[in-house]
Amino acid sequence: MFELRLKALAKINLGLDVIRRREDGYHEVKMVMQTIGIYDKIILRKTKKPGIRVKTNLYYLPENENNLVWQAAKLLMDEFHIQEGVSIDLQKFIPVAAGMAGGSSDAAAVLFGMNRMFHLKLSKEGLMRRGVAIGADVPYCVMRGTALAEGIGEQLSALPPMPQCKVLVAKPPISVSTKFVYENLKLDGAAVHPDIDALVDSLNRGDLPGVASHMGNMLETVTIPNYPVIAQIKEEMVKEGALNAMMSGSGPTVFGLFDQPKLAEQAYHKFRKGDMARQVYLTDIYNNFGKER
């Protein structure tokens, strides 16, 4: 197998609760993660010349050991003493630094591809265990679908598939530092936590309006006061017919869930014409059953 073409899919957080700050500096979380149909494209090629070469379509992305795809390839090459080389052509479409796990999903796709290309015979669980060394979201990005994530995000439990709906994604022209968000998050007695158990219960019932009504992201308590455009995008999506809208991860990307495709299409065109968001996508829920990368 000389070449593999892979899709690295984006994720959204249907719910994100932060339980506590641990002594090691990490935060313990409880999240519901969902894969959606926006994806990066990766071409993985085996080369006779040893080493790892990375090429991307964005000038500001690293093409060395600072890129998670390089780290993913290196991890398996070292463990399995792979003598041949690989080249990784990464075409980015998922918004960068946007709370959608684009880098983690790219790394997960490379783990999957390396396993297949070099016949390493690792199970999905084996790839997930190795992925956590690269990043807390990587195991989920190997798993994909609908999942409850606990611990630092690496303890995963599969959930019933999210009901199908249209997902409008809008990233405003700002950058949000994940470090800044977590450092300024207040976990005192006044903190309001989303009801993740109620969200999971709605998923168990296949209740899309219930899922939408129980969506919540605790990190919005930091980002929205500092970046009001996030609240403006949320409000506009709901005004245009979204069942609910929320920031994904540490932001700044906002997504809205629509049960009426026509309203979703109208909202998409309105955001494309407006100036609140620089990147706008209309996509679907992606459930992983029986689908290859």
Brief descriptors of the model:
293 residues, alpha+beta, seven-stranded mixed beta sheet, four-stranded antiparallel beta sheet, 10 helices, 32% helix
List the helices and strands and how they pair.
Layout: E1 3-21, E2 27-47, E3 52-56, H1 68-79, E4 85-91, H2 102-117, H3 124-131, H4 138-143, E5 146-151, E6 155-158, E7 166-171, H5 178-183, H6 196-205, H7 208-213, E8 216-217, H8 220-226, H9 229-239, E9 244-247, E10 254-258, H10 261-273, E11 279-284
Parallel strand pairs: 1-8, 3-4
Antiparallel strand pairs: 1-2, 2-4, 2-5, 5-6, 7-10, 7-11, 9-10
Helix pairs in contact: 1-2, 2-3
End-to-end C-alpha gap: 16 Å
> What's the overall average pLDDT, rounded?
94
Q: Give the H and E element order.
A: EEEHEHHHEEEHHHEHHEEHE
Radius of gyration: 19 Å
- Major pleated sheet: 7 strands, mixed
What's the total number of strands?
11
Report the principal-axis shape.
globular
| Strand residue percentage | 25-35%
Helix content: 25-40%
Oligomer: single chain
**Spans of at least 5 consecutive residues with low confidence:** none
Please identify the structural class as seen in this structure. alpha+beta
Note down, in words, how this protein is organized:
By secondary structure, this protein is α+β, with helices and mostly antiparallel strands. It is built from ten helices and eleven strands. Helices cover 32% and strands 29% of the residues. It is globular and about 55 Å long. α1 (68-79) packs parallel to α2 (102-117) and α2 packs across α3 (124-131).
